[in-house]
Amino acid sequence: MLRFSLLICLGVSAAAAPLLRFDPVPVLTTPGGTAAVDVLLSGLPAGDPPSVGSFDLDVSYDPLVVTPVALEFGPWLGQAGLGEALEFSFDLGGLIDFGSVSLLTGAELDALQPGEFALARITFLGLAPGTSVLGFEQILIDDAGGLKLPVEGTGGSVTVTPEPATLLMVALAWAGLWMARRVRRQRPKM
Amino acid sequence: VKQQRAWKKALGSVCLSAAFLIAAFAEEKTIVVVEKSANADDKTNHEDNGKGLPAGAKAVEASDLKDAAAKITGELKAGDCIKRLDFRGHGASGMQSVGDGVNREAGKYINTGKEEWKTELAGLKGKFCKDAVIHLWGCNTGSCDTGASKLKEIADFFGVKARGAVNTVIAGQQESYTGPVQEADPDKPKPEHKAATDEAAPARPNNEQKCDTNADGDIDVTDIQTVLNGRNQRVNGPDPRDADSDGLLTTNDARMCVNRCTRPRCQQ
Question: Is the ipTM of this complex over 0.90?
Answer without folding.
Answer: no
